[in-house]
Amino acid sequence: MIIAGAGGHSLEIKAELITLGFDALDLLVYDDEIGRSDFDENLLLKFKLEASIVSLFDKDSRFVLGVGNPFFREKLYQKLTSLGGKLFSIKAISARVETKDELQYDALSFSFVGSNVKIGKGTLINVRAGVHHESEIGEFCEISPGAILLGGVKIGDKCRIGAGAVLLPGVTLGEKVVVGAGAVVTKDFSSGSKVKGIPASPVSI
Fold it and tell me: How many CB atoms lie within 10 A of CB 100?
C-alpha cells in the first residue's frame, strides 16, 4: 500500500497500519518532493515516479494520506486518484466511531466520533481528538491531537483545528479556518479566519 506524503505523520500512519495487520515491508511512501528512490532510516521505500505508482496500483490500488496539512492532503488525494488509486481510510483499533457510515476519513488511536456525525472525505481525526454528536466536518480537514469538537459543531472544508483546541457546542466555522493550539472557540468565524486564544479571537498570521 502507498502512503501518500513523506514526513513525520507518515511514520505515525505506518505504525497505525502495522497495528491493523499490514506488513511494514509492503508500505511504500510516495511524495513528489522526493529527489530519488531509496530506503530511509525508517525502512520506508520512498519514490516519486508516476510510472511506479501506476505499476503498484495494478497490484493494489489502495493508498492512505500521510500528511496532516489539508492542502497537501487534497493535492495528494487528487494526484493519486487521477492515477487510479483508491483512498483507504484508517480506523484505529482503539478509535471509537459511533457512526455507521462507511469511513472516508482517518480516525487514529483513541479518537472519538459520536452519533450522527458527518465527516467529509480525506479528513484527519488525529490521536485523542473527539468529534461529538451531530457535528459536521468538511473535506480534507485536520483535527489535531487532543482537539475537541462538542455537539453540533459545523466546520467547512480544509480547516485546521490545533492541538488541544475546543469548539463549544453549535459553533460554525467557514472553509479554510485555522484555529490555534489550545484555543477555545465560543462563536462563529467566517471562511479564511485565523483565530487563537481563550476565548478565540482573530489574529494576523
Answer: 7
Between 69 and 25, where is the model more confident?
Answer: 69
At 188, list the grid cell. Answer: 462563529
Q: What is the pTM for the complete model shown?
A: 0.91
Q: Average pLDDT, stretch 19-33?
A: 85
pLDDT digits (tens, 9 = 90+) for 73-92: 999 999 899 989 999 999 99
Query: Residue 28 corresponds to which cell in the numbers above?
Result: 511504500
Phi, psi of 34, rounded to the nearest 5 degrees? -80, 135
Instruction: Decide: residue 7, CB within 10 A, 0-12 exposed, 13-18 middle, 19+ buried.
Output: middle
Lowest mean pLDDT among 33-42, 53-62, 95-104, 179-188: 33-42
The 3-class secondary structure across the chain, one letter per residue, is CEEECCCHHHHHHHHHHHHCCCCHHHCEEECCCCCCCEECCCCCEEECCHHHHHHHHCCCCEEEECCCCHHHHHHHHHHHHHCCCEECCCECCCCEECCCCCCCCEECCCCEECCCCEECCCCEECCCCEECCCCEECCCCEECCCCEECCCCEECCCCEECCCCEECCCCEECCCCEECCCCEECCCECCCCEEECCCCEECCC
Residue with cell string 485536520: 142
Closest CA to 45 of 57, 28, 31, 61: 28
